[in-house]
Amino acid sequence: MTKFLLIIFGTFLIISNLNAESFNTALLKAFKNNSELNAERENINISEQELKISQGNYLPTVTLSGSKSTEDTNKLTKQSGGDATINDVDPITKSISISQTLIDFGRGAELSKNKIGLEIAKAKLLKKEQDILYKTTEAYTGLILANEKLNINKDNVELLSRQVETDQIRAERGQITLSDVSQSESSLAEAQARLIQAENELLTSKLNYENIVGTLNNPKSLDKKSINKYPLPESVNSAIELSKKNNPDLIIAQLEYEQAQKDKIIAKSDLAPTANLSLERSYVDDFSATYDEREKDTLKATVTWPFYSGGKNLASLNKSSSLETRSRLILDSVTKQNQTNVASAWSSYQSNKSLLNSVQAQVRAAEIANEGISAEYNSGAGRTTLEVIQSNSLLLNAQISLANSQRNFILSKFNLLKSVGLLNSEYLKIN
């Protein structure tokens, strides 16, 4: 019989593990399916097409055209006298033209600007990827925390239920008073209310998880142990240096400054001349009373110089200069803020690490104290019902504090990775 039960239990564990949703699975689901991420991916496609459009400005333009018209001219009288005449003209015109821009000082800057735009789109995708992966981490650990709090509160309700039963028996024996029983019953009612609250928190956490990651059949299937230990920077200085190369906010600010510089060059080019060269070959077939066929080649060079445009071009140049200055100031601000954010993330990680160790020690002390007080109470060694209730409450709060601290410690590690720009699919090895 025992062997049979062990087989059943083992089978249950295997099935549970198969149905479990690991941390890596959750990250992968969010990475592939999140709508915000997919929208940013489309922005890259848009930027690629804008780059192709600007590249097309370097290539010649070829135009084909054709037309057919009918013209009737009636001359009713002749100056020299005689009968009126009617002329029918039915020309067919075909032409091909090739044009090429020779000089356009803004064309190269426009191409460079769109190349930078593509890099900005990639950096914004990386930023959004970090945001979604961090939200996934929050949702995953939040759901685990909700499960842990639910289990802690369930255990507490069971413990207090036994406490009430024990106290009722002892009261019947005259060992404790009815007020002691009332204290136990009041504590049980409070624990039951906290259990209902924990159940509601689990439901809310599940909905939040599904909103970010996707459908989850079993909210208890998440595994805290599946959250891998990813390498972290060794010091705050190394973290800051990593962020200078990888933080998407910093990359975006730098690229937007470079783009503003290109906009200024483009604005300057609007004050400069442009030159174009075009070649056109046309054919005319005239099916009139007297058939006529003509062929013409036209080579034309055009120089355009916007000498005066009501001050618009100059105002545009001044505007682009101000935008360049603003982008540079924003870059300086983002650079400084980046160092502050990384230092804060590092400090938070170290603080949560120390706090976790402290809370773990607190839980161990609360467990020992609770066991001792409960044993003394059950043996009639002088402990009161109130002391047992207070001991249970301290242990409950310590256990919940530990669950919160464990989650906060995990989040602080991922927030540190995010601050330095390493919270991405490549670094996390999402596959």
Write structural notes for this entry.
By secondary structure, the chain is an alpha+beta fold. It has helices at 2-19, 23-33, 35-56, 107-172, 178-212, 236-246, 248-269, 312-378, 385-420, 425-428; strands at residues 61-68, 71-75, 85-89, 91-103, 274-286, 292-304. It has a single domain, classed as Outer membrane efflux proteins (OEP) (Up-down Bundle), CATH 1.20.1600. The strands form 2 sheets. A 4-stranded antiparallel beta sheet has the order 1-4-5-6, with no helix packed on it. Strand 5 (274-286) and strand 6 form a beta hairpin. It starts with a helix and ends with a helix. The relative contact order is 0.13.
List the helices and strands and how they pair.
Layout: H1 2-19, H2 23-33, H3 35-56, E1 61-68, E2 71-75, E3 85-89, E4 91-103, H4 107-172, H5 178-212, H6 236-246, H7 248-269, E5 274-286, E6 292-304, H8 312-378, H9 385-420, H10 425-428
Antiparallel strand pairs: 1-4, 2-3, 4-5, 5-6
What keyword list fits this structure?
alpha+beta, 10 helices, single chain, Outer membrane efflux proteins (OEP), 431 residues, four-stranded antiparallel beta sheet, disordered N terminus, two-stranded antiparallel sheet
